[in-house]
Amino acid sequence: MSLRSMTGFAQVKGQVRELVFSLSIKSVNHRFLDLHFRLPANTDGLEMNLRRVLKEKLARGHVDVVLSFDQMAGSGLALNKQLVAGYVQAFRAAAAEAGIAAEPDLNTVLRLPGAFDSAVAPAEEELMPAVLPKLDEALIALNKMRAAEGSATERELRERMADLLSACAEVQKHRQAVLKNYAERLQTRMQEWLATAVDLDRIVQEAALLADRSDVQEETVRIENHVQHFLALLDATGEVGKKLDFLLQELNREANTVLSKTSGLAGEAMKITEAGLAMKAEIEKAREQVQNIE
Prior knowledge:
By secondary structure, the chain is an alpha+beta fold. 62% of the residues lie in helices and 13% in strands. The protein starts with 7 loop residues before the first strand and ends with a helix.
């Protein structure tokens, strides 16, 4: 399975007796799998079966599933006149109270649970064998759309990682300038300490601290490793969105460390700061895309 977006929409049609129905599925990004249903009244068993299938086929996303009846084939619809009339009356009363000139939408009225007369609306036993196969059909269309968007996202993420590696190489290129800058600082500090008869142990401690702060080699190696892991996940199957997001958090942490180690430096070392800012920009753009990966 290729990388999939969490955004998609699909709608299929089916028929139960004379009734034509529409089954639509819409999904958007979410941290977990969040299922919502709009089904006819007294279809709890159908909802449980739909929920089971969706959990098997989808990993993450806010998913809305709507089952509605469109029209009768060959004969007129029998409506629950009391329910429909009550809704229309309540709508008009609310509009009058608010001073709004508006009329209720008939399509919305007909989607209300119980809008069809119970003598005509299909029983759950009739709906189940008709709707469940259509769910499979809708999921195929939904995942096709999600996969197409996921493919486009994957291409962009690979470009971001390539740019990130280029910025990392730029940091490595100017790393010696940073080391030289810190060496000059250290030499100046040691001369000051020696002139004031500072304890030798303190000189050693300060020298070790400056040496540790001076090199970004460790950070750049970790960035390169995280990028390779990120690219490997793009080639993997299954739910990878959370893992990709975690890696981007780690990459951002390393980029921040690079910037903190090179703050206050001048000359050629300033180019490392520029490269570090470029890395953070690429990471942030990648995070925006990863938020929508399943």
